[in-house]
Amino acid sequence: MTKPGERNPLTDRPAITIASDLHNNVLALGILERAANGGPVLFAGDLTDRGSPLESRLTRPVAELGHPLVFVSGNHDSDTLQRDLAQRGAVVLTQGKVATVAGLKIAGYSGPYERRSAEDFKDRYDNQPTPEMKEDFTSWVMPLVNHTDVVMVHEPALIEPALAILEDRAPARPLVFVVGHTHTAAVEHQPGVTVVNGGSVGAGGTGNLADEPTDIGIARLIYTTKPAFQPLATDLVSIDPGTGSATARRERLD
């Protein structure tokens, strides 16, 4: 274990903002904009509630909050929303595409429950991904290990089999999974692997503000790319949407 005095300093290190689960709560976009501060944003799904054209128009400003915005879909997003974001300059990641952003090689996996315009944006979500869905994700992600720095996917349950494999056979280079869906901020570790969930930047969405209090959550990943990618720390920020009181917690990853 690295002694505290031997850790890499965090001053002037690059950082990237992590968010998910806005659920149409556009009132929270100002918070996301301030957190991004002109830098890149990784958005791990559920920008909207149905992904309808109306919601796509409502949430269009998010495409300009990150430079760039990197997006993967969740179960409340749609094919229509993804096309709209891509047309506005966002990096929309799907299987088979790896983007280089801020010195990071980033892969993304579309949510298997994303809604479809051809089906009138109906809800396709099931509470637990099927074994076949998990197997599909594992088969997709394992060839990317040791060749990718960050993997984005909305549903944390999809990555469980891959994490089990990587626990027995740690990757040769660090790998960060960025997830969402649970509305609970968390950082989890195992050798060579970090899983970051920023919580819900939309406080669970406007429908939850009254009867299901959820904090606004957002995360920042601090890292270095020299001589190679190394995650150094995560900052988890939580804001009470009722009072505006905020707490922040930093976890060193090195």
Helix content: 10-25%
Distance from N terminus to C terminus (CA atoms, Å) equals 8 Å
Profile the largest sheet: 7 strands, mixed
| Morphology call | globular
Structural key phrases:
six-stranded mixed sheet, globular, seven-stranded mixed sheet, 254 residues, alpha/beta, 5 helices, Purple Acid Phosphatase, chain A, domain 2
Topology, pairings included?
Elements: E1 15-19, H1 29-36, E2 41-43, H2 53-58, E3 69-71, H3 79-87, E4 91-92, E5 98-101, E6 104-109, H4 131-141, E7 150-153, H5 160-168, E8 175-179, E9 186-190, E10 193-197, E11 216-224, E12 230-239, E13 246-252
Parallel strand pairs: 1-2, 2-3, 3-4, 6-7, 7-8, 8-10
Antiparallel strand pairs: 1-11, 5-6, 9-10, 11-12, 12-13
Give structural notes.
The protein is of the alpha/beta class and 254 residues long. The chain has a single domain (12-252), classed as Metallo-dependent phosphatases (Purple Acid Phosphatase, chain A, domain 2), CATH 3.60.21. The protein has 5 helices and 13 strands. Strands 4-3-2-1-11-12-13 form a 7-stranded mixed sheet, with helices on one face. The chain has a 6-stranded mixed sheet with strand order 5-6-7-8-10-9, with helices on one face. A hairpin with a 2-residue loop joins strand 5 and strand 6 (104-109). The longest helix has 11 residues, at 131-141. The protein starts with 14 loop residues before the first strand and ends with a strand. The model has no long low-confidence stretch (mean pLDDT 93).
